[in-house]
Write a structure and sequence with these properties.
Blueprint: H1 8-16, H2 21-28, E1 33-34, H3 35-42, H4 47-59, E2 63-67, E3 74-78, H5 80-83, H6 86-99, H7 112-125, E4 134-140, E5 143-149, E6 154-156, E7 165-169, H8 171-179, H9 184-187, E8 192-196, H10 198-208
Parallel strand pairs: 4-7
Antiparallel strand pairs: 1-3, 2-3, 4-5, 5-6, 7-8
Helix pairs in contact: 6-7
Length: about 220
């Protein structure tokens, strides 16, 4: 729906401000997805809602659909214009990590992909700076996901080989620990295990429970 006044921000919101649009972008930033993969990640979207949203995004030049090689199936991918929204999605996640954090509601799905994206946002927002390039792995029941510090920024990893820290947990337990740090002592060693380099484990834990000396001193 147009805002009907001249403003670049308003015009941008006319394209990306509708429900599901930025979340579709979020899930396609990691690579092309089939329709059913997007439905799984978006959880509450109906097939009709997703079809209409993808059609609208395609008309706006944000996504394109392509035939999957050696298959009668199709997948959706971001265009250059869609990929240019990556900083917007990352900034939104970083803001949410600091100002809109809450534990998962009863029955609310928790997807590993979104947890790891959230980890990148937290690490970036809280300015965690390991002394060297490193890789941390999150081992979930359906497989491992990783985050990497390149020496300049945090990003999603492509392999868990050589990970200096490995966190093993159910997605929901990890989400609870991040959203409610008071639960961490109960979950550690029982439902969440952490192995690896002690200094990097301590650095990781400081993300969940920020150290007092990192906070702005009171005046």
């Amino acid at each position: 729906m147009p805002y009907r006044h001249f403003c670049i921000a308003a015009r941008a919101l006319e394209v990306v401000g509708d429900r599901w649009t930025l979340l579709v972008v979020r899930d396609l930033l990691s690579g092309p997805k089939r329709f059913n993969e997007l439905r799984r990640l978006l959880s509450q979207v109906t097939p009709r809602q997703l079809s209409l949203r993808l059609r609208s995004m395609e008309a706006d030049g944000l996504v394109e659909h392509r035939e999957v090689p050696d298959s009668n199936d199709w997948h959706y991918a971001l265009t250059d214009s869609g990929r240019a929204l990556a900083p917007v999605v990352h900034a939104l996640a970083a803001w949410g990590a600091e100002h809109a954090m809450r534990p998962p509601a009863e029955g609310e799905p928790v997807h590993p992909e979104h947890l790891v994206n959230g980890a990148v946002a937290l690490l970036t927002t809280r300015r965690v700076r390991p002394p060297r390039a490193t890789r941390w792995s999150f081992a979930f029941p359906d497989g491992a996901r990783t985050v990497e510090w390149t020496g300049h920024r945090w990003q999603l990893g492509t392999t868990d080989e050589g990970a200096r820290v490995t966190v093993s947990a159910e997605p929901r337990d990890l989400a609870l620990a991040i959203a409610e740090p008071s639960r961490l002592p109960t979950l550690l060693g029982t439902r969440i295990t952490v192995d690896g380099d002690p200094a990097e484990i301590a650095l990781m834990m400081s993300v969940v429970v920020p150290m007092d000396h990192e906070k702005e001193p009171k005046r």
